[in-house]
């Protein structure tokens, strides 16, 4: 699996389609264990520079900090509210069928839950309870 370089990653973070050789990495990015944290980090690429510019506006520091805090909260709220749809759209741009990421994440969660259920049954159920 080939990782994109820093410039390609920044482009990917703001919505640029990666070349086909990075498709495996894009799928991993959308389905890995920490896909939510990766998504928030990628959204930060667009949010943090805006917040930095807003800090340079004239006015009291408290007013500017309040503006930055409120804008960042709203931006992260809406970004996270549509997280799954955004990730699926990004995978679609990379050429994957609709709901590919969701189905892979669901299968991984089911496997993890099956292992946890098996451990629970092995530990807390006696053989007579079946």
Pick out its properties.
single chain; mainly alpha
What does it look like?
With 130 residues, this protein is mainly α. It has one domain (6-129). The chain is 73% helix and 0% strand. The chain has helices spanning 6-13, 23-31, 35-55, 61-81, 83-93, 100-124. The radius of gyration is 20 Å and the shape is flat. The model has no long low-confidence stretch (mean pLDDT 92). This is DUF5313 domain-containing protein. Keywords: Membrane, Transmembrane, Transmembrane helix. Pfam families: DUF5313. The chain crosses the membrane at residues 40-57, 63-83. InterPro entries: DUF5313 (IPR035197).
Kindly summarize this structure in a few lines:
Helices cover 73% and strands 0% of the residues. With 130 residues, the chain is mainly α.
Topology overview:
Blueprint: H1 6-13, H2 23-31, H3 35-55, H4 61-81, H5 83-93, H6 100-124
- What share of residues are in beta strands? under 5%
Oligomer: single chain
End-to-end separation: 44 Å
- What is the residue-mean pLDDT, rounded to a whole number? 92
> What is the β-strand count?
0
Uncertain stretches of 5 or more adjacent residues:
none
**SSE succession:** HHHHHH
Q: How can the largest sheet be summarized?
A: none
Helix tally equals 6
Rg from alpha-carbon coordinates: 20 Å
* Shape, principal axes of CA atoms: flat
Global structural class:
mainly alpha
| Domain module tally | 1
Helical residues, percent:
over 70%
Protein name: DUF5313 domain-containing protein
Transmembrane segments: 40-57, 63-83
Keywords: Membrane, Transmembrane, Transmembrane helix
Organism: Amycolatopsis mongoliensis
